[in-house]
From TrEMBL:
GO molecular function, one term: aromatic-amino-acid transaminase activity
Required cofactor names: pyridoxal 5'-phosphate
Pfam families: Aminotran_1_2 (PF00155)
Alphabetized Gene3D superfamilies for the sequence: Type I PLP-dependent aspartate aminotransferase-like (Major domain)
Protein name, per record: Aminotransferase class I/classII large domain-containing protein
The family this protein is said to belong to: Belongs to the class-I pyridoxal-phosphate-dependent aminotransferase family.
BP term (GO), one: aromatic amino acid family catabolic process
InterPro entries reported in the protein's UniProt record: Aminotransferase_I/II_large, Class-I_PLP-dep_aminotransf, PyrdxlP-dep_Trfase, PyrdxlP-dep_Trfase_major
Domain Aminotransferase class I/classII large: from-to ranges: 118-512
Organism: Kwoniella mangroviensis CBS 10435
Keyword annotations from UniProtKB, A to Z: Aminotransferase, Pyridoxal phosphate, Transferase
Length: 523
């Protein structure tokens, strides 16, 4: 066997850490606790009750059988299951991560993303909301930093960034996700005198983006990583939908057959097929610097209620996340950790079984997406609503063509304020005089318009709820505001999910189609 290649260590990226996080001291109590464990000392120090006072040790779970995980989750849906006893470790302490789970996640990471730096580490979170929020805390200097992100993004993450004191700046997206040329332009034309500190954090959902459903092609991943290297930007890769890439086509039976016992599974072979049928590889799999902070969750493949996820990053960042955790959540719920570690152990599913489960979940989403697109086609006229089939995840981004509505208006504006900005820019060689409240950003924008698209979308949304009895999420929930720019023209989208059952998809799209036709016909 050839020796494993020597991996580079991450480069020094400590300057990206927020000042308040650099100085957090490790918990002295935990350090003493560790000393007791390592030196086998008698102790009167710790303040935790004796485990015999905790009223649980085992639990019985009903879970899909390994042999039904070879491609379909349908057997499970039809009741094929086994009941197994799961040992709950002495999780009551609540201050330590489950070491077994950490190792399993390291193995899973390596199977799905490979390993590119020697000091890659893992931090267990309470799901991606928690992971994203803690990573913003790690990197954002309150009231100083601007975080770059897709122009439409997951509203909770945007709120988390704002709550940590970040301003947001939108980067353009198209049907293939974030547009690298726009990222490059924004970074290379950033004017610190006017716009504040140059952004050093990109928050992105590159795969099955929420809300647009877009998945970046490989070349975009490469290009964005290169730009972030060039401008020294940290990439926060929030990726709940990576494992739900919908490129399976006819590959329903490609995985090697599931063995009776997880320990006999050929995990490498299972992962190989799983990866081959993924359309894209993650930012993490290309990260030679340690500048990617990958944020994963069990929510979409195991259940949001387990509240478990993990962050993967260079060890210096992970060490600081541990410090943040010590003063916020401690570690995630020990019961959930214990249960997940049991599922992933060879006694139950093993890592191979978990990948098989994800494969089955993928197939289900692919069916749902195709069904959704067929029903959309059937019920909703394409001249009113168009969409690009998503390549991963569970969202379709529906573009409403408001231009064919009789009351749609879009007029160029030439307000005194705009003229002042343009004049200021034309003044070559002088310090530009920017009117208060207006930023130079708007100068890179195309001509400005007033448009009633926002009002029409509000009206349409109300009509859908009142008359169609159907709810879709409007773009205004997700849009990243751009100071000094009228974004009404970008509000003509709805996010629709195909995560529900087929009956619901059919009824909701029928209602949507009927109701939107009715609204367009009204004057
Ligand atoms: C992009 C994105 N990030 C984070 C989350 C939250 O995930 P979790 O349930 O793990 O907190 C979601 C869930 O919808 C999401 O779509």
């Amino acid at each position: 066997m050839s020796p494993a290649p020597t991996l580079p260590e991450s480069i020094d990226l400590a300057h990206h850490l927020a000042k308040r996080v650099r100085t957090v001291q490790p918990s002295a109590m935990k350090a003493l606790g560790a000393l007791v464990g390592s030196r086998k000392l008698l102790t009167l120090g710790g303040g935790t009750p004796h485990p015999s006072l905790f009223p649980m040790s085992h639990a019985t779970f009903t879970l899909p059988k390994l042999s039904t995980l070879n491609g379909d989750v349908q057997d499970w849906q039809q009741g094929e299951a086994v009941t197994e006893e799961i040992h709950l470790k002495k999780t009551g302490q609540g201050t330590e991560n489950d070491e077994e789970l950490v190792h399993q996640l390291e193995e899973l990471n390596e199977l799905l993303h490979g390993k590119t730096i020697s000091d890659s580490s893992i931090y267990i979170t309470l799901g991606n909301t928690d992971g994203v929020s803690k990573v913003f805390q790690l990197l954002v200097e309150p009231d100083v930093d601007t975080v770059l992100t897709e122009e439409y993004s997951f509203a909770s993450s945007l709120n988390a960034a704002r709550a940590k004191g970040a301003r947001l700046y939108p980067i353009k997206v198209d049907g293939e996700g974030l547009v690298p040329e726009d990222l490059e332009k924004v970074l290379s034309t950033w004017d610190e005198r006017v716009q504040g500190r140059k952004p050093h954090v990109l928050y992105t959902i590159p795969c099955g983006q929420n809300p647009t459903g877009s998945t970046q092609p490989q070349e975009r991943y490469d290009e964005i990583y290169r730009i972030c290297q060039e401008h020294d930007v940290i990439i926060m890769e929030d990726d709940p939908y990576y494992r739900e890439q919908l490129q399976l086509k006819e590959a329903r039976s490609e995985l090697p057959p599931a063995p009776e016992h997880a320990k006999d599974d050929d995990v490498q072979a299972v992962a190989k097929v799983f990866n081959e049928y993924a359309g894209v590889r993650s930012f993490l799999s290309r990260d030679v610097d340690g500048r990617v902070i990958r944020i994963d969750t069990f929510s979409k493949v195991f259940g949001p209620g387990v509240r478990l996820g993990w962050v993967t990053a260079n060890s210096a960042f992970i060490e600081r996340l541990l410090r943040i955790g010590e003063t916020t959540t401690q570690v995630p719920n020990g019961l959930s950790q214990s249960v997940l570690a049991s599922y992933l152990s060879d006694k139950h599913w093993g890592i191979g079984g978990f990948i098989r489960w994800m494969w089955g979940v993928r197939l289900e989403y692919q069916n749902k997406r195709d069904y959704f697109l067929d029903r959309l086609n059937e019920y909703v006229p394409t001249n009113l609503v168009s969409t690009v089939p998503c390549g991963a995840g569970m969202f379709q981004w529906l573009r409403v063509d408001l231009t064919s509505h009789p009351r749609y208006r879009k007029n160029p504006i030439n307000s005194p304020a705009d003229t002042a900005v343009n004049l200021a820019l034309d003044t070559v060689g002088k310090e530009p005089e920017v009117p208060p409240g207006l930023e130079l950003k708007s100068t890179n924008e195309p001509a400005q318009y007033t448009s009633n698209a926002g009002e029409l979308m509000d009206e349409l949304w109300n009509h859908l709820v009142e008359h169609g009895k159907v709810v879709l999420l409007p773009a205004k929930v997700f849009i990243v505001e751009k100071e000094g720019v009228d974004q009404s023209e970008d509000l003509n989208f709805f996010r629709a999910t195909f995560a529900g059952d087929l009956e619901n998809i059919d009824a909701a799209l029928k209602a949507f189609g009927g109701s939107i036709k009715e609204w367009f016909a009204r004057v």
